[in-house]
Every structure is written in structure tokens, then in C-alpha cells.
User: Fold this.
Amino acid sequence: LLPLVAQLLPVDALRLGVHDYVSKGVGNYLEQLVGVIERVLAEHRLVTEHKRMQDELRQERDLLSNIMQTSVAAIVLLDVEGRIVFANDRAEHVLGVTKCEAEKRHYNSPEWRSTDYDGHPLPDEALPFRRVLDAENSISDVPMAIEWPNGNRKYLLVNGSPLRDNDGAITRIVCQVIDVTERVLAQRDLAWKADVDEAIAHISSELLAERVSLEDISMHVLSHARRLTRSLYGFAGYIEPGTGHLVTTSLVIDGQEQSGAQIAMQRFEVFSGLWGWVLTHRQPLLTNTASDDP
Assistant:
């Protein structure tokens, strides 16, 4: 502090004029000295406060960066045009692209086919980015799925919020994208098992009922099987004990269920195709790619 005072005093002396400066006496000298010291202290406080604010800002920035990079959710920042301008490390796993690739895409890039959980395409206005921008408000727990050209699909929950400038205008939109694929698939698996158990219980009760015909049982089995597998076509029948032939008692043609007297029972002496494999091996088979199966 003293060296700085020593530098400032001659400057003040030159400003006042050396003769006047010396003649003012000790009292005036002390007043000026106090004034110089006060100015120096004030400037020191400003510098110290500025440095403290910079340190706090840097600490907050580092904390935010650590939170974003270590988050279990993907964090994506988009501009008002929908272009991704930042994606954290987790986004690479959730979105299936590198950070560099993500930052070249938009929220509705065709590489990501956006659907609901049942696979139905989502219109642009239903996508999280557009909902935040249109409503100018936050959203939470918006369910959606993204599907890649190779057929892989991930189920997501999305939270989004707008970022504004000092005038209140939206400049960015930040989205938190949570991968809930395992949870959704587990829930569907449990629901599937519950449906199968219910179908088996219902068929069992029908078998125990009196005067139930083979055609009725076959139709019940076929109805439950169609619902559980979402099949458009199918048939139910039995293996004739004496001949080992397959006799169909119920079938579905063009979505119309028929049984008994409505159809001429079909008899198959040779088993071929996928249904033949099922009968020969006495094992179930569920497929969507028949050409890849035995």
C-alpha cells in the first residue's frame, strides 16, 4: 500500500502545483494522504470483490459441468431452431450417436423415428422440444420412443425447460432424457405373463364345464392366442390319435373367426412349414421373420 501512496502523492502534487502543495501545510497533507488511502482501499475492495465473484462463478460453472457430465440422464441443449448445440456423455448411450454427431442434428432428424410407446409415429407438435417452445413453459415425464433404421428402439421419459435472456425471450431449451427401456420391457413382460395366466385359467374353466364341444374349446384357444400374439390369421386343431393327422376345428380367415359347421374341417397328413415344425417338435414358436426360422 505505501509504495502505491508514494506514487500517487507526487501526481497530486503536480496537479495542485508544487508551491501550493508544499505551502498547504501538514494538515492539508494529512487530509490528502487519508483521501489517497481511502481511494486505494476502495479500489482494492473492488478488485477483491471482482475476484471473489469470478471465483464463485468459476466454481458454479465447474459444478454445473460435473453434474451434467456425470448425470445418469442424457442432457441435451438446443437452440430455438431445434439444433442440438450441446450433449453430455450420457447422451451418446441414450441417443446412440457420438457427441459430435448429436451436435449436427435437430430434434426431429429423420435418423431418429419418434413414436409413442406402441410404435405409432408422433407428430412434430407432440415432440418435447416443440411442446416447450410452443407453450413457453416446462414439461415433465413426457413418454416417447426413438427407433433407428436397424429396428432398435429405446423408450424414454423427457423433461424440458426453456432458458431465457434478460428480456424474457427464449434462447435455449434444455432437455433431460431418461432411458426407461428396461423398465418398460419389464412391465410389458409382467403384463404378458398375467395375460397368459388369465387365458390359461379361462380355458381350464371351460374344459371343466359340462357339455362343452371341441369346436367351442378350439375357438376359445384360438381367440386367446390371437389376442396374445396380435395375429391376423390362425387356426386351432388336434392330432387325431389313430392316424396322427392334424384336424383343424377353428380358423381365422380375413379376420373372421369360423368353427364347426361354418368350415369344412381340414385334415393334414403331412406337416410342413413353421406349423409343421411346431407339431413335429412339440415346441412353441413365435416369429416375425419366417425366412430366418427352421
The chain has nine helices and ten strands. The first strand starts at residue 74 and ends at 79. The beta strands are 74-79, 84-87, 113-115, 139-147, 153-164, 170-179, 234-239, 246-253, 256-259, 267-268. Confidence is low (pLDDT under 50) at residues 1-9.
